[in-house]
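Exercise 7 asks you to align residues with tokens for two separate proteins.
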Amino acid sequence: MTPNARAELEALLQRLAYLLQHTASGEAEALAAKGRKEFPLSGELARLHGIALLQLGRRREALTALHRAAELAPASVEVQCNLANVALEDGRPEAAIERLQATLGRVPGHPGVLQALGVAQMVAARHEEARDTFVQAVRAAPQHPGLRLNQAEAELELGAAAQALAHVREALALAPHLAAAHDLLGHVLHAQGHLSEAAQAWLEAERLAPGEPRYAFQAARMLEASGELAGAAAAYARTLQNAPGSGPALSRLAFTRRRLADWREQGKLTVRLREAVEAGQHGIVPFALLLEPFDRALQRKALESFARPIEQQLSPMRGHLGFTWRQPAPAEPIRVGLLSDGFGEHPIGRTVAGLVEALAAAGGLELHLFATCADDGGPLRRRLAAAVPLHALDALPPPQAAERIHALGIEVLADLTGYGVHTNADLLALRPAPLQVNWLGHPGTTGAPWIDYLLADTVVLPTSHRADYSEKILRLPRCFLPVACASPAPPPARSACGLPDTGVVFACFSDVRKLDPATFARFMLILREVPGSVLWLRTGPDSADERLRAAAAEHDVSPERLLFLPQLPHEEYLARYALVDLFLDTLPCNARTTAADALWAGCPVLTTAGETFAGRVCASLLHHAHVPELVAEEADGFMATAIRLGRDQAALAALRARLAAVREQSPLFDIGAFAGDFRRAMQSIGTRRRMGRPPIDLDF
């Protein structure tokens, strides 16, 4: 090649590199195709042509170009790394590893190849090998901050958060303004439970790269988890500005605004969420959908869209773990695990404590608890741990937690967390148990292929609703929700709670997020029609109480008629129900443990039977408490009943007396009988599995 031709080729290659860096793929592809006619033996030109074709989505042509580049430049590390990346994108990490290891044999210690190999090993869930590979890469290029970050990612996957933090700090010392380093710092701090510090790390990453929506989104998640909801909502809104099609940001913004009782754009957000679900948008968080007026079919579609990428992402790790299950002897009791982040001073802990003790006393199952929350040192945690073995998983990443569960031979694993903030979806997708059950945490279908059964009853899930659930259905003969039978403290005086001396006290002690403009409007109409009445609500975060009082004024209700219950110890909270005349339930998402608390404390609850699982929980509680007349069929009936009762103190007193009379006979409050039904359900599905029979719908 003449010097002029060499200079011309070099200029062409530089131009192509510039175009590809600025994603001008079409122009780059046309220029490369033309250049290859003039320089048909240039391997680098063929490689850059292949990259342009990849950017344009023309994979077959791209592979042809890259393989030609490998023929023309067999020593080119870049070509081999490009081909390995294509294999990774195609879901073939082992092929990428094989190619890169062969390349490394020709260029031992090459940091670029080592980095690409480590990344491929990470995708293949070979995390220990990846860590060792990145160590070699750092030795070869100690001033490369990206390699330190790769090391940190591998350590984090292995559960070594402290070591990961050290490597991130090393990267930041080399490149203090590298947004990716602050991003990974946020992940490490999150893994260590330092939520506020993690939020600040992601906010700094956002400041350094303001156009990157991931950083604002992660900061918002940490702010939300640490209770800084106003800041979280603002960060979710910034995420949507840079990524208008982000399902996670859209759904979390809608959810956070509801937690703040900030309804300014609620209607628009609901419309956008519906459109996103109908379009199959991934990442819309399930717990936000429970609060939206969506039908069961739409919810199932959204849940399946949410679960699909989790299943795909965890598939390599599941294959790497390769769990198999031994066949127990026929006489061995079924081994059942309950998995939750609520085994402590938490509604779930209070709900299941009596059941766990009843199951332990009766025998017939080998029961284990798996706690994904830290030990709070409280009496409920001690009570649970005294009844059955309790295994702490909170410090373990999902693969190690799955190995712990699998090692104990758990046959049926019930998830009591669902898709909440501390979801166990990643752990459950690894399949630590052969049968996995959705119960309590997520009131509805999970849409997840790793969940085999949903525990329900005939009221929350009538036969006519069956088609909208992905799981096989286990229906108990009583309410699926066990009622915790705790003793309330002595009731305080009305004046001690800020209540007026006279007048009807309506209450809704559900979390403020379950209120929405339509529900709130119904409550305000009831107050207007019952003179002298007040509405007692649970206090909300970040000025939510003031927003609700302002909304009351817009409905021509004096803001002073809204009163707010602060956070109290559970027994003191229960005592307040003695001062409540009627609990008003919410829709589309009912009260659950809150309504059960009210009924146990003798307070009448009025609800509307919705069309989804989450909208029928209270109807089930009332049906099994033997007061079905408190279930309205529609909103007008709900308001009419509330107004009629609010104007008739004798009727309210009669309802309270009836609840007190039936409490001892009602199946809702018989925890021993519930334990028997639960035990039979677990034994039935466990025995079917031992016999080699697949899951089926079962009524008990």
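Second protein for Exercise 7:
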Amino acid sequence: MDDLLDDDGPDPGPGNAPEFSVSEISGAVKKTVEGAFSLVRVRGEVGRLSRPRSGHIYLDLKDDRAVLAGVIWKGVAGRMATQPEEGMEVVATGRLTTFPGQSKYQMVIEEIRPAGVGALMAMLEKRRQALAAEGLFDEARKRPLPRLPEVIGVVTSPSGAVIRDILHRLRDRFPRKVLIWPVAVQGAKCAPEVAAAIRGFNALEAGGRIPRPDLIIVARGGGSLEDLWGFNEEVVVRAAAESAIPLISAVGHETDTTLIDHAADRRAPTPTAAAEMAVPVRLELLAWLETAGGRMSRAITQGVAARRQRLGDLSRGLPRLESVLDGPRQRLDGLADRLDPALRAATQAKRMELDRKAARLGPGLERAVGIKRVALGRAEAGLSVTRLKAQVARRREDLDRLGARMQVARLSERVVERRARLDAALVRLDAVARARLEQRRDRLDALERMRQTLGYTETLKRGYAVVRAGADVVTGKAEAERAGRLEIQFADGRLDVVAGARHRRGRSGGGDDEDQGSLF
């Protein structure tokens, strides 16, 4: 600006002042401002704040009398440990510059920090209330820890004392498989890496190449509020609240409190305490199991003894088995004794009834079979194949004569068709006649076998005899005595006897005659 105002000539006066272009004036102002304020630290309250899609951050720094516009470029905003929030009191470090397009000046911020612990605590409380209003800290969202996890995932720095304390404590209490996800535990990279680790453990598939943890521990040693600030970031809190795997927060010492403690399922005062929460003491568990096993054995023994005594008491009140079975056993023996004679008597009665019916049925069956045989012979004569063939031959001759008189081609085709049908019918008729003849013959043979079976002559062959008085069959003793003269038919012939007659026969050697006695 001084260069523009320098002039070797005399003062030209107000009317002869040199003329400058707008760009020249803007460039001179920009050069002066940037030269005089190339590095400044400004303390103020964050006012208007906007984050467009470009990734830059535009904000106002204000106090009770003035407002200073500021901008944080995208590259710087991604590296900042503390993200500005509206109403937050901060100390911003950067440089002043002008914006010629709007004749304004602004501060290009390179670093921003809260203005003291009070400002951090105010911002922390505001963030805690906002997240609590969303329900991220509700007790209903918290899941119980597994009794004995197979795999434990630990999110912490791989080189610090925290991981050594956790592994040592797990080894002393109950050794388990441990997966370590290394992260930065302070600085600008802390929050995104911790959130990515929690989500990464949850993204593992059960039964995959890398086992999915049953429990997650997020751990860090003690430090100042600024050192632990990454665990207060919203991205970490949301990742902890969304975790499907139960999560223990072990950040800082017992007096340190971060927002992840509220979102976690359990809070441990120290990383060592987190390992104690994760697994029980193996020796204590074995001792408890031994004690429980002893109690169970005693309870089973006492229960069996009590039930045995109860069973004995109940059995003494029951009647003796022999007395219960004596009555039914005696009745069964009596029924068995009566069963054999009853069966024999019933069989004899049925056999006699069958003989009587067979004697009456025999002549009638013979006559019926004879009539059927005559009828079958007549039917067989009527169905003679020779006679049928003669009839067919005559019909064929008549058809041939009829075909000779028909000269029309259509009638000739019909004659050929009818002749073929007639031949087929003849073949079928012959087969039907033979089948019916065989069927009648088989039926007649069956009737003959039935007659033979039901006839009394078959009964005579089994040792029975038929007693007749004239043409009548005698079935009783009194009837035989009244008849006087009887005829007995055996299987091999007939014998005439006189009822009540006594016959004598000589003994061999000329002995005395023996009285034979009556036939009945």
